[in-house]
Amino acid sequence: MAERTLVMKFGGTSVGSPDALRNMAQIVGNTRKNWERVVVVVSAMGGVTDLLLAGTAAAIRGDVDEVRKTLTAIAQKHTDAIQEGSLDPKTGNAIEAGIGELKNLYHAVTVLREASPRAMDAIASLGERMSIHIAAGYLNSAGVPAVPLEASTFLLTDSNFQNASPLMAEIPARARPVFAPFFERHEVPVVTGFIGATPQGVITTLGRGGSDYSAAIVGAAIQADEVWIYTDVDGVMTADPRVAPEARSLPTLSYREISEMAYYGAKVVHPKTIRPCVERQIPLRIKNTFHPDHPGTLILANGQATDGVIKAVTAIRNQTMITVQGGGMMGVPGIAARTFAAVARMGVSVTMITQASSEQSICFSVPGSSGKSVQDGLEEEFRREIDREDIDAIDILENLVIVTVVGSGLRKTHGVSGRIFTALGNTAVNIIAIAQGSSECSISMVVGKNDEITAVLAIHALIIAKENIL
Ligand code: ADP
Ligand code: ASP
Ligand code: MG
Predict the structure, then answer these.
(1) Which residues lie at CB < 5 A from ion ligand 3?
(2) What pTM does this model have?
(3) Under 8 Å CB-to-CB from 165, ≥6 apart: which residues?
(4) pLDDT digit string (tens) for 107-130?
């Protein structure tokens, strides 16, 4: 029988404290009884990536006190875990080396008073480059032979620092010889999530929350049979449990449903995680480190029909809506193409598009941090049309939230949007714009920041209503 391979990813909370680390080690130990080959991918210890970046911001300001405090906090978190786990001195040395490297990088930034995206990645990568040693230490203490492994040895990416893309065509050939010796020795490689390296060996990161993506990339590269993502909730839920305390976990979802949910703000998995799994049809499970017996959520090609048409509601905060409008736009060819080309040149990704059928306006949203610069850029692009009054103005509306309803049944069922809008109308939520995903498995609505919770709860009430008649 062919040997079966499992990739298990543990997020920040799941490796964030000695108790969590012990849970993690026990879960891996138990799982190894059923899987011949196990690879563990870990995030930085919870909160460490935020600290690393906050320290960089302090270094740019030249605030040496704050830099020192941040260094101490990061070092302390790791040394506490080493002490509580009674890990061997090898682990201590690895952490010391990481802290030493961080000190040098912070010093360089303090002197220069700036950090390039490349420098930011060198700094942000240290969370994972240290946590692999701690996680491997806890695994070894629990009797699981484990060896730390930096993904920069095989996870090649482009040099788009802070949001690098993996070079998928080259990764499998690099990864296989790296992993084979571990499998032969029945050792568990403990791989850094979040990071990769350019072909020249310069460290990159895959974007915040990118450890999930790393797990999927590794899974695809070594042809894993499944990828399991361990986090701090019972799988993917009908809504963010922090917003809707009554949220329930979803037993199954399709790749398409989870993609829409992740894209539209369900932080539980990074949106890019799905693609490597889809291409090789690798089942993905989301499970709870703190509740390992709970089945969590299984994600497959077609999911499974469950009661109800809509399965979940998500929200993405801090959005800005941009409207290009004018009576003369109808006669001017290529306004939409020029608008989106200009936005793309600014390196901003559009989160949602709606267009009025009259072609007198184009309306789309972008992350709030880019709203103003997109407005300025478009005013520049359309200077001539604005002067000629073909375009009236480039308007922006800030502090918005995109609320998205997800469910593959949306495609087949009439009247769902009507019921959703009625529910929102009944709670006096004003819908500013609407878009239906092209896959027809989601409907997104833009609402004001103050309406987010009301909107999410009103829709969530429809999802969990017993009859779910939507
Ligand atoms: P990790 O560090 O394990 O990657 P994250 O904090 O990135 O964990 O993601 C897990 C969190 O995602 C949960 O604690 C939960 O608050 C949040 N979340 C948002 N939307 C959902 C959802 N629909 N289902 C489950 N969790 C969600
Ligand atoms: N440690 C990284 C972050 O905090 C990656 C991750 O946790 O997935 O963004
Ligand atoms: Mg995460």
Answers:
(1) 11, 209
(2) 0.94
(3) 157, 158
(4) 999 999 999 999 999 999 999 999
